[in-house]
Amino acid sequence: MRDDSGKLAPHLDLNLLELFESIWRTRNLTATGERLGLSQPTVSRGLARLRQTYGDELFVRQQRGVEPTPFAAMLAEPVSAALAIVRRTIEKPRFSPAEDVRRFRVALSDIGERYFLPRMAAWLAQHAPHVSIDTVSASREGLLTGLASGEIDLAVGFLPGLGKQVHEKRLFRETFVYIARRGHPAVDGRLQASKLRELPHVVGSPHGTQHAAAVEKVLMGPHVRAVVAMRVSSFLSIGPIVAGSDLVAAVPSNLAALVSEHVALQLITPPVRFPGFDVSMVWHRRFNDDPAGVWLRGVFAELFGD
């Protein structure tokens, strides 16, 4: 590197700046050596290099220790500021949930909002009062773009095959159960596979999910041949629809348990096998070590992991 005159600028070792700062603070070469783990000759050689670099005596020996020159006094503040900047680059950032303000953006389906957020809200109010959550709904492409850019901090749900750029951690295994209204004329706590083709079904088909295809593949198969009387874009509407009609539905078990607390439903073990699925957390590898992201994933794992 050249200075403004075109001459080669002197190279300044970062260790020499630390040496300067320590001498400035201690006013003693012996104490500086002990503080930095350096021998007395090494300290003396380092000080000699500093003097040569800056063209100034910097520190003058006194009866006890050393005293800085006016030029050294002028250097002290910028040297300390420069070292502070460098030190911050090697210090890992921290996240304090009890004190820090942070807004997370989490990709969730309608079921995810209903299942995760009530318990999460209560937990945050107690343990992380300045943390807030915005939920987003994104297409598969939008989800990948958002995770990569940091616009989406975390995605939670059934999210298979998003590629090698993301990390995934399973929270729990989900299965399907049948729901029917209490007092249904053809359903009394049990279902036979042979009866399914006689019962009109409602099927949930939320945008961007693969649940509907998995359920309909079974329902339309040769062993069932069920009638799909209604398709809806939100699983959350299925409970009230079933509770007010003679339609039946296969829905994720956690959703069925939540909905049955508010409407009169029967929860029935399916007489046919629907494929289960993993509910997982997904985040981009760029943010794997981000302390706030690590904390958020830990909260989800603590509250909902199996």
Description:
With 306 residues, this protein is α/β, with parallel strands linked by helices. Strands 4-3-5-12-6 form a five-stranded mixed β-sheet. Strands 10-7-11 form a three-stranded antiparallel β-sheet. It contains ten helices and twelve strands. Helices cover 40% and strands 21% of the residues. The longest helix is centred in the first third of the chain and has 21 residues. The protein folds into three domains: 77 residues, Orthogonal Bundle (Arc Repressor Mutant, subunit A); 91 residues, Periplasmic binding protein-like II (D-Maltodextrin-Binding Protein, domain 2, 3-Layer(aba) Sandwich), CATH 3.40.190; 100 residues, D-Maltodextrin-Binding Protein, domain 2 (3-Layer(aba) Sandwich).
